[in-house]
Amino acid sequence: MNDDEHSDSNRMEATVRELLTEMKDASETIVDLAYASLMYNSKDIAEKVEEMDRDIDDMKFAIRTKILMAVRTKEDAREMTGVLQVASAADRISEAAGEIVKLLHVPKEERPFINEIINESDEKIMMTRISPKSDMAGNTIDQLAVEASTGTKIIAMKNRYGWIYNPDGDVKLRAGDDIIVNGSLDGFSRLKKFASGDLPWEFPEMEFAED
Amino acid sequence: MDRLDSMLLELKDTSEFMVDLAYSSLLYNNRDIAEEVINMEVKMDELGDEIQKSLLDMAQKNPESVMKAFVAFRLQIAIEDIANAAASIADVVLRGYASSPVIHMSIKESEWTIERATVSETSVLRDKTLGDMRLWSHCGMFVMAIKRGAQYIFRPDKWTALREGDVLIAVGPEESADYFIALADGSRKEF
What we know:
Chain A: InterPro entries: PhoU-like_sf (IPR038078), PhoU_dom (IPR026022), RCK_C (IPR006037), RCK_C_sf (IPR036721). Chain A is an alpha+beta fold.
């Protein structure tokens, strides 16, 4: 194999790796969002799920094309077969999420048991509002390290501009924002106290931050 | 919560756990973990059958519950699909197709990191239960499995006590990985 082919194959690997990471992350978020759409009877969240489902589908086709173009040896083929299987699994998970949001067409009076099940789950979905008294207001999700500090993950939020789904770490939280999180009940109780301003936020220590 | 709802709850929780566990089996290319995912899949199928029979029975006895049966059926099928997808990920490991560095790296770079840490003699976690330590709400790390000697304890509960030498496999935000490892190896003493 000459050098050009080597760098081509490295580029292919990087693209495939990025696509697979994105598919994995999206396939996990989309299931949380699907349950949240039923929980809060939200068409907006359901539409986001449908959009993500289509995106994941596109990524599945993109990853297949990249791999088929680049595979040259039997060993490559074996390794990439595993990658393709994982990509398909992520796609199947997102399709299942798409099926879950279809239940939104059923009037919510007909499906109260779904909320009960979500409320009793290990991973719960809950909503709270950021109070003007809260230390969280004015800080980004990364500055707060919300997941690391409370074990709850913000899967969606509504601010004055509208909904943001699976918000990035650089999104700033402001007073009045509604956040939908998933995580443990225990973690949520702490988060709620931080969000209401009853507890001062414990900012993460920098010594454990990534260098 | 009635028996049917409890079964659906069990189905939902297990499906989510299976996905995390399946990705761990892939990250470590670990057959023991992959086999547990497959075992869970078998139990999920049995539970799914039982749920479907109960739903049909319920709808037959009480025509007003047809809509609930319909919704629960659809939900059960979607959840089973998720569990099947998890099993198909574990299958990559069992068939020996998980050796690619691309797979390993793509999971490592995920927002949700999977970490392994060994409980040392001086660790604050030693001889404490998971319920005492509340790692999940304190640092977001959820312990999925414990390797004790040659045995695995999957899906440990809050009463599970940690022993010196236990290898914890946890999933959580990447910011917490170092903190979690430091608690286990004894270099960090307080939360």
